[in-house]
Design goal:
Elements (H helix, E strand, L loop, with lengths): L6 H38 L2 H27 L2 E3 L6 E5 L5 E6 L6 E2 L9
Antiparallel strand pairs: 1-2, 2-3, 3-4
Length: 117
């Protein structure tokens, strides 16, 4: 997708960004739950359950990686310092707008340091 710093375009991404983030949040919760279950199964020595839990955990982690790639295809990147923030790249390849999970609007980025108006 073409990179743009057009605010209207960035704003139109919000519903899609929100949907992706909801999935990411669900998967993060599931990963934490599976990690706890895996620790318990390891202590109990339940090999059958270990195999099943490891497979489920691998699937959720793979889907989280794919979500990051989906953001990239949209011309966005997840903010390294705030995983609940997406930075929308402008046509010059620099960060133009940011969107925080749960927001209904994008915000202009004033610098690559993440300050915004």
């Amino acid at each position: 997708m073409k990179h743009t710093d057009d605010k209207d375009f960035a704003q139109k991404l919000v519903p899609l960004l929100d949907a992706i983030f909801r999935e990411v949040a669900d998967r993060r919760r599931e990963v934490r739950l599976l990690e706890k279950q895996l620790a318990t199964a390891t202590r109990e020595g339940d090999d059958d359950q270990l195999t099943e839990l490891r497979a489920k955990l691998a699937t959720h982690r793979r889907e989280l990686r794919l979500s990051r790639k989906e953001f990239e295809r949209l011309g966005c990147e997840v903010d390294e310092s705030n995983p609940n923030r997406v930075l929308i790249l402008g046509s010059n390849g620099r960060r133009a707008y940011r969107w925080d999970a749960g927001d209904v609007a994008v915000h202009r980025v004033l610098s690559d340091a993440g300050r915004s108006a």
